[in-house]
């Protein structure tokens, strides 16, 4: 069974009917802002078995599962990961939380400001590149390889749309 996309407007129209929403963002992102009543399993912890267990405990209608993340990419990855392994229809909410905010859907907010995963990745990549350049200039030219390695990782992430640094940062304690 393949997954489908749903626009925020169409999602809002069916959201009041007790539908099952799975948020695949990090725990810190969900704590800062979430869709009321949604289930949560971070993408890096998502398995069909974990989802089946959570769905059994939730008591929600699981014929359709709406996947949600910040901008849509992680929800797309979750749909690909779960595709064909559940009897439910899978829907990716286009644009994620960013689009839902623009559609004025009511969200739960803790008031706590959380740094997005994408921003954390950009900071980490910048620090590693700068460290490689400084260490290469000040100590030993082989340290320039660190900057090259990060650059190659960014190229790989751009081509495959899979960011290993992002997956690693998502597992850090401050994102739990």
Summarize the structure.
By secondary structure, this protein is α/β, with parallel strands linked by helices.
Features:
five-stranded parallel beta sheet; alpha/beta; 7 strands; 8 helices; 176 residues; two-stranded antiparallel sheet; 50% helix
Structural class: alpha/beta
Helix content: 40-55%
Strand content: 5-15%
Shape: elongated
**Mean of all residue-level pLDDT scores:** 86
Low-confidence stretches: none
Strand order of the largest sheet: 1-6-5-2-4
Please outline the major beta sheet: 5 strands, parallel
Oligomer state equals single chain
Strand/helix succession? EHEHEEHEHEHEHHH
The overall strand count is: 7
Output the number of helix runs. 8
Q: How does this model look, in words?
A:
- The protein is an alpha/beta fold and 176 residues long.
- Helix 6 runs antiparallel to helix 7 (144-160) and helix 6 packs across helix 8 (164-170).
- It has helices spanning 8-15, 27-32, 48-58, 73-82, 96-102, 117-138, 144-160, 164-170, and strands spanning 4-6, 20-23, 33-34, 39-40, 64-68, 89-93, 108-109.
- Strands 1-6-5-2-4 form a five-stranded parallel β-sheet. Strands 3-7 form a two-stranded antiparallel sheet.
- It has eight helices and seven strands.
């Amino acid at each position: 069974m393949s997954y489908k996309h749903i626009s925020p407007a169409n999602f809002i129209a069916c959201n009041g009917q007790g539908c099952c929403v799975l948020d695949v963002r990090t725990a810190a992102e969900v704590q800062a802002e979430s869709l009321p009543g949604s289930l949560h399993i971070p993408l890096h912890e998502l398995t069909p078995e974990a989802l089946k267990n959570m769905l059994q405990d939730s008591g929600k209608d699981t014929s359709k599962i709406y996947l949600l993340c910040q901008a849509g990419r992680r929800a797309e990855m979750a749909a690909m990961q779960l595709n064909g392994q559940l009897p439910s229809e899978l829907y990716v909410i286009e644009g994620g939380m960013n689009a839902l905010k623009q559609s004025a859907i009511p969200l739960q907010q803790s008031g706590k400001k959380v740094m997005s995963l994408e921003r954390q990745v950009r900071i980490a990549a910048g620090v590693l590149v700068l460290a490689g350049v400084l260490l290469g200039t000040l100590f030993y030219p082989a340290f320039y390889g660190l900057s090259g390695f990060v650059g190659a990782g960014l190229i790989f992430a751009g081509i495959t749309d899979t960011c290993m640094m992002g997956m690693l940062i998502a597992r850090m304690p401050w994102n739990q």
